[in-house]
Amino acid sequence: MVCFPGCHINHLTPRTLDIDRVQSLMPECGIEPKALIEGPPRREVPILLRQTSFKALEEPVMFAGEHRGTHSARFGEIEQRGVALTPKGRALYDRLLQAAGTGKIISATSSIYRSV
């Protein structure tokens, strides 16, 4: 556990309209992004949630007993939210999201994926 003497933002999630552009520009700004954007591939019409993040910054900290170390928990996610294309697609998304929240694993070969 790490404690900080003042305010400390651990997790920041700004929203963007073009996550692919953000992903490509992060290295130019000295920010190391994750390797891949999570979610569906880029489409002409944005579909549901796509997100990426940048790796946690390594920060120096002083632990109890004057021991120096580093802490790397602060990171940021960037998200792009689109829409479901059909009511059936949205229902599938909601079912899968609910199943994921229960920890239930649904195989990509499951018939549920072929129901759209």
From TrEMBL:
Its cofactor is Fe(2+). It holds the Pfam family HGLS. Gene3D superfamilies: Uncharacterised protein PF07063, DUF1338 (3.10.180.80). One of its GO terms (molecular function) is dioxygenase activity. The keyword Oxidoreductase applies. Belongs to the 2-oxoadipate dioxygenase/decarboxylase family. It comes from Klebsiella pneumoniae. Its EC number is 1.13.11.93. Keywords: Dioxygenase, Iron, Oxidoreductase. It comes from the Bacteria. InterPro entries: HGLS. This is 2-oxoadipate dioxygenase/decarboxylase. It is an enzyme of class 1 (oxidoreductase).
